[in-house]
Amino acid sequence: MTIVDCAVYRDGERRAGDLELQDAYEHCASDEAAWVWIGLHQPTEEEFDSVRQEFRLHPLAVEDAIKAHQRPKLEEYGDTTFLVLKPARYHEDTEEVEFGEILIFMGEGFLITVRHGETTKLHDLRERVESEPELLRRGPAGALHAIVDRIVDDYAPVLQGVEDDIEEVEEAAFAPGRSNPAQRIYHLKREVLELHRATAPLVGPLERLSSDSHPYVPEEMRSYFRDVYDHAVRVNDAVETFREMLNSVLGANLTQVTVRQNDDVRKISAWVAILAVPTMLAGIYGMNFEHMPELKWTLGYPLVLVVMASLCAALYGYFKRSGWL
To answer: Is a pLDDT exceeding 60 seen at residue 198?
Structure first.
């Protein structure tokens, strides 16, 4: 069994640790004031089956918990609340957002957390909750709030990392050099889209936890969930802003590329026009006709060179003043 921790809490204290699953359930069944918190990490269907049987979990929620890859959501299965969360962390070296998944079952006297991935480990969080007796006295809802609050807070460094990278691509897009950060912009757009899929669906469930009359969320806990809800809304607004900024940067970058291409075309056209003058004169006097004006004139050759140079210099000055060179 991939149970990371299993403990029973009563009167704001951890009464028993390292319990067997059946013993933890019996503690809660025999004592209404006690509740159990079971933490699992990437269990298989066979490993999770005993948990499902002991706490009579709904098969659809169990399937989601085992297979993961769910968007944040809040569902009610009989007397069990099922919540899906998407923790995240940002890797600065690769400019990628790594997502995990935490699926939570909460019911009368129990909280079951199923974690997938390596983001937002819950062991240190459990230790912090255990150090606050007042939080433990609030039951499973207190621990649930601590988990949700940690996950939403962990979005802050992710947002900061993404924002720093967006500022860098903005500078690159408007830099005087000829770099083209389009590939990096598209990469960031994909990461921001994934972040949006994790944050946008979370707002609704948190609003329900803060306003609805859930049987396992005490009245005094709803203000705490409202605070987390406000943070989640701000996170989602920031992600929406990032999407708009990247769209604007991408458009500006494409405009810059087009402007550079136009400059290149104008420069090439200007040099072609300048070189066309000596080419034309040399072509005329290179036709090898026997009877041509000034063909045997002594000053003909230097005069043609002077005319070529003068016309080329005049064209160069004209294109320079016009901004083509």
So the answer is: yes
